[in-house]
Amino acid sequence: MDTRESLCESPVIIADREAWKETNLKDAGTIEVEIGFGSGEYLIRRASEYPDRLFIGIEKKPGMITEVSKRVASRNLNNIRLLESCAKDAFTDIFPASSISRVYSLFPDPWPKRKHSKYRLFSTEYLRLLNNRLIFGCEALIVTDSEDYCNWMLKQLPDTGFEVENSTIPPQFDTRFERRWREQDLSTFFRILLKKVRHIEASPP
Q: What pTM did the predictor assign?
């Protein structure tokens, strides 16, 4: 079975964004979203700790989605759904306004070359969309190993409706990327915690 076939057959995965539009997420209770879940360690731990919440993982790589779906199934977790999509499309097309309780993105691609900076997530435009989809008073957590990327994100934040808490933290998430950085003697990461304090209008999905 190839990756695309397994994406379609797993009950954990919703491979078609159109299928999400048929789901009334406002009736799903507490929703947490991880952007770029990678190997899924943090997503699976959160879902195990909070079985009464719905966890939605967004990832662009089909191979990672298939791998994580198998781990989810082996643990009999029925509160995780995985979506193959880029984050901007997912937040634009799927989530209604004020529907998400928590968003997190651990070690997103910093696109360090200047010519690639246009591909960076968490631009002002995207942060305003993220604000619209979060419930008032709820939070988004972003952790990066790149100080340059952290500083760039902080410059994007004015007029996005968020209260910002910025700090450095030690390793604490035990993800594949974090372990890789620790092997390279990186012991300090950059944490941005965003709390929605003002609602930003955006187009509905």
A: 0.89
109 assigned to active site: yes
* Cα angle for residues 9, 108, 36 (degrees, 5° grid): 15
Cα–Cα distance for residue pair 90/103, rounded to 1 Å: 13
Query: Tokens in use for 103?
Result: 């968003």
Whether the Cβ atoms of residue 123 and residue 160 lie closer than 8 Å to each other: no
* Whole-number pLDDT of residue 176: 84
Structural domains in the chain, CATH included, are 3-196 (3.40.50.150)
d(CA 141, CA 147): 16
Nearest alpha carbon to residue 15 among 117, 84, 93: 84
Catalytic residue among 2, 16, 52, 109: 109
